[in-house]
Amino acid sequence: MDHRRKRVTKNEITDLPVCLLEEILSRLPMRSPALGQCRLVCKTWLHLISETYFSKFQFESHPRMLVRTLPETYRSREIISARIAEGVNGRTFQVERSKKLVPERELPTANFELVNSCHGLLCISEGKYRNVIHVCNPVFREHITIKVNRPLPFYLNSFGLGLSITNDKYEYKVLRTFCLKTNRSAPGYPRAEIYTIGTKRWRRIGNPHSCIEKLDFNTYVHGYIHWIPDQKLLQFICSFNFGKEQFGQLPLPPTYDGNDVRVKLGVLKDCLCVSVPEKVGSVDKFGIWVMKKYGVKQSWIQQYVIENLYPDVGRLKFYEPLIFLSTGEILVSFNGEFLACYNTKMKKLVKKSTITQTKGGIHAIAYNPSLVSLNVVARGEKVRALPEPKVTLC
């Protein structure tokens, strides 16, 4: 009789294949304590959760955005984080308020303006003259504060955050554009500086064709940010490449004559798109054009037409495309006042969503959270972390 004991194989959850671990971990909520605890299990899990591609894998299934309310009587002190759940069985999309980003909890200041986001990091400007920049990761309540050089006299201080990837080297950069004026009546001269996180200094770069007034919902494509120049007669789209640190121009769609300033930029399937007003007889419409081959004028195609618009509100109205859903619906911002859903099959606006109760407007930007700590990309910059909120037990 064989009295030898059989070896018992002990299986650990840490022995699971990486693809299966990704699937399990990606189902945990962004702010779940369990996700933070999983980072402490072992180095493999820590590296997996901290990788940029895991963050994308976790959050790409539901488009997300940040919405800042713009009340008429007081300054907004919070940002609403929302995700867009696509409709099923013929139902339209749902805007789900996931959480609020509150100053002194997830945000370093209450006096801020949304700038843009890039690969999970949020850029906000602070102060009357926007002379302080914060690059934040709200997931970990972390931020880096960057002070701005102030050559005087100047006006229209504006910014954009981007990522430069060269030879597998990842660098986050902040672009600053501003206009110099010799006196109040003189025209402004566009100027620009760049700040690479980790260098702790601003550098002068080439002059932009036009300063950034405000970035639209999402204009980051192929390492470039894009904006509409402040001109009475629009002739081109402005761009900036964060890797080459160069400004550029892109042509507008062929049917646009430059006379109507209600032009909005966006991104559709990794392609730059633009919403431009079109008039057929006495009927107003908005065409959504997509640049299929970046930088090539002949590659513009008209993908959608927004028609059957809301009744005339007695002032200029615009429709800014925000998110394109696989159901054929387009989430649009109407006059920066509320969100609406345009059904491309029915060719009409089918739903309003205010997200928050306010008599003022809203400012929305695209945002996908990141589980990569700012300490990973800070390269020596001082990273400040806001304290965790106290939990009161009843």
Automatic annotation (TrEMBL):
Pfam hit, one: FBA_1
Entries under PANTHER family matching the protein: BNACNNG10540D PROTEIN, F-BOX PROTEIN CPR30-LIKE
SUPFAM superfamilies: F-box domain (SSF81383)
Entries under SMART domains matching the protein: FBOX
Domain F-box intervals: 10-57
Official protein name in the record: F-box domain-containing protein
InterPro entries: F-box-assoc_dom_typ1, F-box-assoc_interact_dom, F-box-like_dom_sf, F-box_dom, SCF_F-box_component
